[in-house]
Amino acid sequence: MEEEDEEARALLAGGPDEADSGAPAAPGALPALCDPSRLAHRLLVLLLMCFLGFGSYFCYDNPAALQTQIKRDMQVNTTKFMLLYAWYSWPNVVLCFFGGFLIDRVFGIRWGAIIFSCFVCIGQVIFALGGIFNAFWLMEFGRFVFGIGGESLAVAQNTYAVSWFKGKELNLVFGLQLSMARIGSTVNMNLMGWLYSKIEALLGSAGHTTLGVTLMIGGITCVLSLICALALAYLDQRAERILHKEQGKTGEVIKLTDVKDFSLPLWLIFIICVCYYVAVFPFIGLGKVFFTEKFGFSSQAASAINSVVYVISAPMSPVFGLLVDKTGRNIIWVLCAVAATLVSHMMLAFTMWNPWIAMCLLGISYSLLACALWPMVAFVVPEHQLGTAYGFMQSIQNLGLAVISIIAGMILDSRGYLFLEVFFIACVSLSLLSVVLLYLVNRAQGGNLNYSARQREETKFSHTESMQADGDMEVSWMMRTQKCRIILGDICFTLLKIYSNIKIHNGQGLI
Amino acid sequence: MRYSVERGWGWGRCAPSPLLLLTLLLFAAPFGLLGEETRQVSLEVIPNSLGAPQNLLHIRAVGTNSTLHYVWSSLGPPAVVLVATDTPHSTLSVNWSHLLSPEPDGGLMVLPKDSIQFSSALVFTRLLEFDSTNVSDTAAEPPGRPYPPYSLADFSWNNITDSLDPATLSATFQGHPVNDPTRTFANGSLAFRVQAFSRSSRPAQSPRLLHTADTCQLEVALVGASPRGNRSLFGLEVVATLGQGPDCPSMQEQHSIDDEYAPAVFQLDQLLWGSLPSGFAQWRPVAYSQKQGDRASALPCHASPLHPALACPLPQSPIVRAFFGSQNNFCAFNLTFGASTGPGYWDQHYLSWSMLLGVGFPPVDSLSPLVLGIMAVALGAPGLMLLGGGLVLLLHHKKYSEYQSIN
């Protein structure tokens, strides 16, 4: 029993030193790669975990990378094209409340990951078949199925991460998972157009069949994700058998009745979030053709610019995470990020300056906002409502994305790109208005959202009992927040939370 | 020598420099070519006193101290002669016997002759067709293997008296080849719809070119003709008289940020017969393959650079020769509509392209009031809220002193 406890602790504590000093004979018979308590094996599992989400992120932005081709081959206008994004978001309006529940109570993490991977795979195949059979409704249905699996798979991915890695390693793991997500999106943007032209050369003509074949080949990444899910399930079960460790749980608790207790600052944070992201993601979805037609870029260059937001967010997120952690003053950072996005959209709308400048600015502000905004939810909501708060935030965000995607398509077809940009500027302006209002309300109420890091430390030390979360709640909180941001972009909040938690738990007699 | 295409960048305005504007304002009175707000427009089909009716349309737009004469005709290839005078009393005189003779010089005159400030002409000589299969570079010239072109001088036209509409100040020339052995135009026609305007406005029909009282609009529509290939691109050959001096008129591409009126079209092409204010032709480099002309049916339109039309003999237009005499110095350029992929003429056997022809400063698109309003609110509201809230907090703060807690 003690041996097993030691091994379990070795797994949970992480790090090769403890594993070496702790574990005695029995698992030593296995080679390092097959031993669940050794680092080498866990690195293998890490690799599988990273690729688990790769297919989903790769295929999410397939429409954006192939916008011209889809519109031409399927003979649809922009409004119908944007339905491909809207249908991805519709199931997640409801599902983000239930993702954790499904994994904890219904399927378990292993089957959950496999089932969601299957949904992703099948969804992408149906999407491709819609192209082959020239049925746009089938493509929409495929995106719907894909959406059911996509976001919940991210929850599963995070649950695995927390189950296999704890403490200081978790930062690195989340960071790597995020990087894989962003690499997937970037590779998609830059690869799919080229792949389409190669298939076109092979088959001899453009058309819906070429599109379908291209999407089917893109779906190979989803099959890869499914294989990773199966492998992870096997390895997880094996580790449970060897180490007697429990299946991972999300630990989320969702109670919809908690919504009535949400405070005004929280509602303002919701508005900021929704209004901001609806001006970023639909823009990226429609961006490639914008750069081709307004600035005269080639298809490849336009794809590259479109992917710049993702490329920047991967390295900058940890940097900004540390920055916000060190300085605090979240609202000011959110204000800077939203204002910078406003400037970026204005540059794209009203000038002919090189769009690389505006897109780099957009990427930077997008990373900064995620680092500063999402932690604020944890500051205004008590622990037991955190699951509901984040679930609600994600739900309305998906609702906003679904609706605004369609509206953006309609505006573009009838009024053109300038009006679309003005519409996005109006959305960002609404977000900016909410930030200003949040600042004023926070000041008036004497709230803690805009505390500097030092003020927050001082407040923490005098309220440590409320910060001492038990294992499940900590996991749940990290899970929830991480899930949201992996989907939208970054790791900084984890750094902030873990960093501050480590500082508390490593106490040094501060408690 | 390359008769180059200039690129103008900016905020959507082909704005003359302030110095030029000032200079022009000083010279406004004698020139009279600067925009009249409204004009009295009259359309007149000039009857042939000598026999069978020929299509000769005279549009007379009279302002307070200038007159614009547009003479449209399908005698020979479709052509337009544009004359601007500095008096509201100038008239057109037509000598049919001269006009219909082999030497039409002097058959068309605007009197009094010394009141003429500007004159130019455009002739639409040929309808081109290219086979665009296996062509990947859509900006290449020519955009594919050319089929034998249709010479518009060999078309037979309808009687425009029937299509004259005084309410909209428009008339339509509709024609098909006289000799059509392959019966490509059996169910089709090429139409030139001419419309004059008495004041500035913007039509609802794409491409929604802003017109003024100093312009008239031409819409070229190819309907129902059978293409000679699966992926045929059509084009139009246009011939222009020389600008000021011995050079060809200059072609300019105006890039703008504003595509409100023609979604995804950020460019305006202009043909200028001299330094402004002068005669101009203006169009958006887009054609439409459906009647309602939305973004899904937009075809790119490429204009070739202007080259002097010396080498190959072009179909002669009698009215141009009648007015300008027998000079042979013309400049030609080609317009091609569509690309090998995407929407094209093959969708509905319909193609339409519009242009403006006028005198003075070409109309410029500006941001609509809706856009300006939204921007004002979007930028103003957060700023005002920040200011207001800051003031309130400041006053609130001054009321209460800070409470220093003991511990």
Automatic annotation (TrEMBL), chain A:
- Tell me how this protein sits in the membrane: Multi-pass membrane protein
Q: Where is this region: Disordered?
A: 1-24
Q: Which UniProt keywords apply?
A: Lysosome, Membrane, Transmembrane, Transmembrane helix, Transport
What the entry lists under SUPFAM superfamilies is as follows: MFS general substrate transporter (SSF103473)
What parts of the sequence cross the membrane? 39-60, 81-103, 109-137, 211-235, 264-284, 304-324, 331-350, 356-380, 392-412, 418-441
Q: Which InterPro entries match?
A: MFS, MFS_dom, MFS_trans_sf, MFSD1
**PROSITE patterns noted in UniProt:** MFS (PS50850)
Q: Locate the Major facilitator superfamily (MFS) profile domain: which residues?
A: 42-445
A single Gene Ontology CC term: lysosomal membrane
- Give the Pfam families listed for this entry: MFS_1
> What family does the database annotate?
Belongs to the major facilitator superfamily.
Provide any one GO MF term from the record: transmembrane transporter activity
Compartments, record wording: Lysosome membrane
Q: Enumerate the PANTHER family for this protein.
A: MAJOR FACILITATOR SUPERFAMILY DOMAIN-CONTAINING PROTEIN 1
Extent of Low complexity compositional bias: 13-24
Its catalytic activity?
A: L-alpha-aminoacyl-L-histidine(out) = L-alpha-aminoacyl-L-histidine(in); L-arginyl-L-alpha-amino acid(out) = L-arginyl-L-alpha-amino acid(in); L-alpha-aminoacyl-L-lysine(out) = L-alpha-aminoacyl-L-lysine(in); L-alanyl-L-lysine(out) = L-alanyl-L-lysine(in)
Protein name per UniProt: Lysosomal dipeptide transporter MFSD1
Whether Transferase counts among this entry's keywords is no
The record's note on quaternary structure and interaction partners says: Homodimer. Interacts with lysosomal protein GLMP (via lumenal domain); the interaction starts while both proteins are still in the endoplasmic reticulum and is required for stabilization of MFSD1 in lysosomes but has no direct effect on its targeting to lysosomes or transporter activity.
The organism's lineage is: Eukaryota, Metazoa, Chordata, Craniata, Vertebrata
UniProtKB/TrEMBL annotation, chain B:
As for membrane topology, the entry says: Single-pass type I membrane protein
Q: Which GO terms describe its cellular component?
A: lysosomal membrane
Signal peptide positions are 1-35
**Record's subcellular location:** Lysosome membrane
**Assigned keywords, A-Z:** Glycoprotein, Lysosome, Membrane, Signal, Transmembrane, Transmembrane helix
Transmembrane regions: 370-395
Q: Which InterPro entries match?
A: NCU-G1 (IPR029382)
Could you confirm whether the keyword Ribonucleoprotein appears in this record? Answer: no
What is the stated purpose of this protein?
Required to protect lysosomal transporter MFSD1 from lysosomal proteolysis and for MFSD1 lysosomal localization.
Self-association and partners: Interacts (via lumenal domain) with lysosomal protein MFSD1; the interaction starts while both proteins are still in the endoplasmic reticulum and is required for stabilization of MFSD1 in lysosomes but has no direct effect on its targeting to lysosomes or transporter activity.
Can you tell me which family this protein belongs to? Belongs to the GLMP family.
Instruction: Check the record and name the PANTHER family matching this protein.
Output: GLYCOSYLATED LYSOSOMAL MEMBRANE PROTEIN
- What is the name attached to this protein's record? Glycosylated lysosomal membrane protein
Can you name the source organism? Callithrix jacchus (White-tufted-ear marmoset)
